[in-house]
Each structure stands twice: as C-alpha cells, then as structure tokens.
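Dissemination and training. As part of the outreach component of the grant, students in the summer workshop were shown how a complex can be specified as a set of sequence lines and then modelled as a single object. The example used during the hands-on session is reproduced here so that future cohorts can follow it. Participants entered these lines:
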Amino acid sequence: MNQPPKIFLRFLEWYCKPRALEVIEGDLYELFEGRCEKLGTRKARLFFAWDVIRFLRWRYVKGLDDIPALISLAMIRNYFKIAIRNLLRYKFFSFINIMGLSVGVVCCLAIMVFVKDEVSYDQFLPDHERVFRVSLNERGTNTPALLVYQMRQDFPEVETGTRLYGPFDATVNIDSHVFKQGGAFIGDSTFFEVFQTKFLAGSEEYALKKPNSVVITKSFALNHFKGKDPIGQVMKVDGENHTVTAVVVDCPGNSHMQYEFVVDIPSESWATKGNWTANNFISYLKLRSDANSDLLQSKFQAFVEKYVGPGLVKFTGHSSFEEYLADGYKFNYHLIPVADIHLEHPRMSLGGTPGSKNNVYIFSIVAFFILLIACINFINLSTSRSALRSKEVGIRKVLGSLKKQLVFQFLTESLIISGVSLIIALGILLLILPGFNELAGKSFSILEVLQVENILILIAAGIVTGLIAGSYPAFYLSSIKPIKALKGVFKDQSGSNFLKKGLMTFQFSISIVLLAFTLIIYLQLKHITKAELGIAADQTLVVKNVVAAEKSFSAFENSIRKIPEVESTVISNHYPSGGASDWSYTTVEDVSKKIGPYHAFVGAEFQEVLGLSLVEGRFFEKSRALDTTTVVVNEAFLEEVGWETGVGKVLSRGNGKNFKIIGVLKDYRFGSMRSDIQSMLLRYAPSISQPELHYGGGHMLIRVSKNYDEVIRSVKSEWVRFVEEEPFEYVFLDESFNRLYGAERKFGKLFLVFSVLAIFVACLGLLALASFTLQRRLKEIAIRKVFGASEYQLSGLIINSFTKLIGIGALIGIPLAYYMSDKWLENFAERLTLNPILFLFPIIAVLLLSWITVGFQSFKTARTNPAKVLKDE
Amino acid sequence: MGRLTLGEFEELVLLIVAVLNDNAYGVNVMEEILKQTGRKVNISAVHTALDRLENKSLLSSHLGGATKTRGGRRKRFFTVTKVGLEVIQETRLMRDKLYGQISSLRFGTV
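and obtained this result:
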C-alpha cells in the first residue's frame, strides 16, 4: 500500500493543534489515496507535501495551551529547590565544581576579549576595506617618495593616498620645556583623508596643508598644553617651529598606527622629488569604492618597470628590467589591506603592539583546554556521585518520575553550577583586569569587558558548558533501573570507570604539555639572554643623540673621557641591538654580485670600545684620512658573498664610488637571536660632522669599567653642561638586548599563568575524586588494616592508582610537548638543544603535586581506627 | 445577532454544505466545489472556511465513525444550522432585490 511522505506527516503532527489534527490527517489521507490512483504515487506524495505546507496556518499551529504540562512552573520550582539542596548538601563537591568552572570561564572570557581585540584591528577606520598599505616585495615597509603621487596620476582607481614617516622619537620643546616624545609622525596633507578621525578643535581642511603645521592628539594636548587652547600655539619639533592647527581624538588601542602628533612633510628635495630607488616613506592608498584591488595590483609590475626600472638597472648593471627579473630578482609593489597589517604583517605595525596570529591561535586553544579540564572535573565528580544518588533516583522512579523529568532535574543542577560559576568568573575577571591588561599589553576597561555582546556570548557559553558537563551524568543517572538501584546492587559500571580514568589521563596530559612548554620557553629565554654576544654588552653605555653637542664636541668628548671609570668612547650611528639600515653594494670582480649588508658609520675606536676581534686585516685608524674610502666587514659578509678572504677586495656603491675592504671582524651579535648573525659592513666616520650620523641620530658608545651608576651621573652632568635643547638618553647594551625579547617574555609569562591555572583546576578535580574514592573504599581500607597492612602500604595503594594515570598521561603529553617546543624554537637561530631529560621535570612536578594532593588524605584515612569504620554494620 | 459578514468563498462553502445535505466533510466539499463551479481550491482553504463558518455558528459539526480508509482517521461532518439557513435566505433576498433594480438595458442583450 502506498504511504504518504513520512517526514511531512511528522511535520504536520508536530505543528498541528491536536484538536484539528485527526480530521486534517484523515482528509489528507483520503486525498492521497484518490490521487495515487489517478496521478500516480510520486505526484500524490508531492501534493501531500504541498497540502501539509498549506495547512501551516496560524489557526492550526499549536499554541501555548497545547504544550503538555510536563514543565510546569511548579516542577521548575521543585527542580531548583532540589538542586540547591543537593549543592548545599555536598558542599565540598559543589565548591570544587564551581571553583574549577569559574577559573576555566575566567580564562575563556579573558582570552575571548583578547582575541576579539586582536582581530578587530583597524576596522574602526571608515572605509577600511578601501585603505591599503603599499609594500615593496610584500615585506619591504618603505617605498619611494614619489610613489603615492605617481600612482594617483597613473591609476584612476586611486581616490587619494598619503605618504608618512614614523613613528620616531622627537625632541619637543614647548615653552622651553624640553622632552622626548615617541609616536611622532610626518605626513602629507592628505593624511587625515586616508586615516579619517574625529577633529576636536581646529580645521580639518587646513590641518596639514600649511607649512610647519602640526596636528596633536587630545591626550598630548592635555599633557603639554595644560589649561591653554592649543590651537595656534607653537611647539618645536626636532629644532623646527610648528604651529598647532588641529586637535584630534587619540588613536584607538586597536590601531596599528599610534601617533601622538603628525607634522607636515618638509619641502626638502628628498621628500618632494626623491629617488625611485630610495625607499624613504611609508605609503597608503585609498581606492575608489568601485575599484578592484586585484586588478590594480596586476598593473604594478609595469609601473615598476617604467619608473623604478631605469635606475635599478643602472645600479645592478643589467641591460634591461626584464633581464633583471630573469636573473631571479624580484621587485614589485603590493597592496596590503589595512586591517590585515596587525596579524598578517606585524612588521609593518607603526607603533602599535605587533600582533601574532600564532599567539591568537595558541591562546584560544589553551583557554579551551582549561575549560575542558574544568568540565572533565564536573563530569567525573557527577558520575562518581551517581552511586550515592542512585537510591534517590530509584525512589523517584518508583514514585513515578519520568526519565525526561530526571534529566531535567540533573541538568538544572549543572546549569545552576555553571550559572554561579559564570557570575563568580565575571567578578574575578573584573578584579584581575589590571593584571591581565599588563600581562597582555592591552588596556581594556571594565565597560569593554561588560559589553552586551560579551555578556550574551558568556551566557550562551555557560548554558553550553552546563549542558555538556551535565549531560553525561544526567542521561546516565536517569537510565538507572530502579529495582537494581534500590536493591543496592548498583555499581560503577566498568564503562563509566573507563571514561573517568580516560578523562583524568587526558587532564594530566594537558597539564604536562602546558608545564613542559612553559619550561622550554623559560629555558630558551634564559639561553638567549646568556648566549655569547661577542661584545662586552654589560660594560657598554650608549648615549643617544650626541650630535646635539656638535658645536663643542671635542670638549664634550674629552670631558667624558676624563671620567676615571671611562676606558674609551666612540661615535657611531648604530649600536648593537639598536637596529641598523641596509645599504646595497656590488662587488667589483668579473661577475659582480649585489649584496645588502647591515650598515653603520663608526669611529676608529669602535673595535676597542666593543672589544671586537679581527680575523684578518686592520680596523680604521685615526691617522689615515683615506680610511673613509675603506670598509670593514664581518665573517657573515664573506660567507654571503662566498669569499675565502676579504682584505683587498673592492665594493662599489655605483657612480664610481669604490671601497676597499681593509679588515674582517669576527662575527658578533648586533641583532636578535631569532636570526643568525647577518652580514655587516662598517664605514669610517672620522668626525661628528659625518652627515650620516645626523640622520639616524649619532650615538656615543662608552666603555665603562665599573661604578656604572656613578658614571651615568657624571655623564649626565657633562651633558647638561654642553647640550641645551635635548634630553639625556642612555641605555646599557645588555638591557637593550634584553628588550629585544619583550614579546617572548610576555608570551612566556602568559603561558606560565595559564599552565598554573590548568594544573590548579586539574588538582582540584584530583582532590575531589581522591576523597570520593577514599570514602567509598573506607571499609576496604579498614579491613585491610585489620589484616595487618601498614599505613604506608595503604596510602601507597591509593596513590598508585593515580600514579598509573599520570604515567599514561605523560606518555601522551610528552611527544606533543616535544613537537610544540620544537616548532616554537624554530623561531630562533640561537636555540636551546632539546634534551629529553628536560621533559622529566614537568612529569615529576605533576607527580609530586598529585601525591601531595592525594597523599595527605589517604594517609589520614589509613590512620583512622578500623573499628570506627566497621562498627556501623 | 450582530452584523454578519460573509466572504465570497465562505458563502460558496456554506451553500455547498447545504447542497451536500448532511454528507459534507472537507474532501467532499472541495470536490463538490470543483464539480459545481470548476474552481480548484486547496483543502486547507476549505478547512479554514468550514472552521470559520462554524465559529460564526452558521455550521455545526460532529465526528463520524472510523473507517479503514483515511488511515483510520474519522471524518468531521458539517450541517447548516438554523442561523445558517436564515443567512442563506437573507443573502438571496438581498441579491434578488438588487437584481430587480438593474435596468435590463444594462445587460445589453436586446
């Protein structure tokens, strides 16, 4: 016999009012049967489905009065009452559940706020999807001065664009108050067309159009123009007068660009004309709303050939741009959406904390695992308690409880626990917010955390957590056969025991992975800060911007050298760990090679001050004026070019400017340990008037023998004597090197916090489970004791059962930890060698912790008088 | 009794139920409409109209016995109530009155 489509029949039964259902079904059946004969089954089924849909009318859909009274208000009230009674009755278990879940939720919530912030970078910008950064070969941050101008001329897709330079530390002078200010930018007049913001005072239109103007942020204005109207005020930026034309709101925390003030671009030739091979500016384009960025991108190679090609070819000695590309070189501009900069191109960040996609992933996963550990506690404790509550379930069933009602009962309990945990978690988060901000390098306010969206997600998460954590016990307990439960033959089934043990093993392996990884991070950080630098970093003091003392420099220099603890000094536009620019040279030989080493201008005493040793040749000498046409390179340079020896070889800067290598330095560290030592080339700066010292700020490197604090005081007093409009800025090289690893250190700290939390929650679970196991084995232990077992043997018995689980957890966890650590260490050129013994420490730590947790309780149980326990029956 | 409004379709269903004379239920009414007027209507529309008319107390209903066909479901039979008959009467009188006042020229057959 033909049947109508079942799914539609079900659907009808689901939505239709019971009163009307029978008649409607009957009619539909009758029609179906008739149509089967006339039109065939297939069509009849189609008609049936259509009719069911047509009956979906207000009049036939179930209303409130049709829902069976299973979940009546009285029942709900009863669920709550019983749930709360149970929570209060087993205070210890409730406390551990709530505590564990709260910690898990705090981690999740904190990380959610963090991740949401990380992925929201630069999206506050109006039309951010049309704003692009132009990069050179996807990595180069800077571009030629003429790029934006020429692109606006050549490509109709470009609506506007801006060049900028920054962020740099400027020396600011307001009413003779001189200070260093970071976050200074130089920008085109179109700056605020691309980076639209709110103007609080002054005119947006003329903001950067007038020569020597400056736009400041609100907080800068409040800090430095106290109580005055800043508009029209004059402030000196690096010695030049600028008039404040406007005040804008502060950069939001989730902006990749953090400016304190923006001054207009000077009209000097390097800025107005520039050179297509000199990359001095950062460029941004804003496209028209109908422009296709991929299409625009595809036009860039031709653009490069037309404008950059001629100069490039002349420099490298190729006959055409095509030949240059055919030689395997790459040269193209790329559009990077502004919202991608933070996470995808952290190198291009302009003063904002560079993001890390990996960290976002890693911390999301870690938060999830901590919550998981807490959920596992909950599941384990509830299933363990099921033996205690099986009698209750049996009685309820005998008295007529439906399975559904029992499930509701248990779910209510778990939802109450997760609800209470949520509230506590929120409270904890608000309390620890300042600490979290410091740890994560953010500045979240309480209001930001309490956004409606976050609260909604939190509530949803709480419900899901409660349901997941509560569902296993709920369904498991509610399916107990009442007779068995009441007879008392009910036991932990081997299935649930296996699950419990499996989950615990899982908890331990997560704890061990986190602990091991934390340990590796710490050891690696220690390794790189202790690693051989090749220079006397802790003895070298850097005084920045000594060009400010140019007028009477030799007097200044002499007075510094007279300080007894000062061994020697040198001028340089670079100091190790302080970064350096790369310049291109070509080798002068039959087949010339292009090389772009890091580059510095240094005085003759550079070798002496840093304690560098030469592999061959000599260093610059004061007595030889012609040393300005010579260079000193390091071993890495020779290796990159492929030379056995260096002395006597010649390098060219183009235009017939040739430099002879006179010495090769033994490799020393001048950058982070993340990469190998790069090739370095030193040029000779005979005096402070060397122009290059004025670009990057000329520094003085001072070799100090002892009494560091005193030396700083003496140098400062000399500085004040010789320099007027420049604050005294100094750093010791070892500190400066340490600062290179700030991100890693922060990462390590965050990880430490998380692994401690994870282990804490896991131990809470262990504690509860152990005390529960002890309770159930009380009689067994007493009987064993009667038969002569010692207290230590009995404690060992309990401890052993947990130790096995930790062992298995370690077997799973260690390979994972090894893999993770190995991946992470790939970020460093100077890396720790992973010794397998290292991984024993986290295992031992977890073992000890669990023994302490369990041991105390089991020993106490083992010591109780067996008569007390056994007399009950 | 307040002012009763009858939709065109409702009036049709009312008349059909009257015509079917104690043997009116959903499918039957739908088929009779097709037979008498050639109009194809969905069964859900018929049910809705029947329910409305019952609410307006123009129809009354009772459940029939179960049979083997219709998946064992019972039928709901509809009969026209006294009020229903009055309404049919009333509507007819009003129609006739209005027809009488239309000039025969208007029909344009002469």
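Residues 6-66 of chain A form one domain. Students were then asked to discuss how this feature might be tested experimentally.
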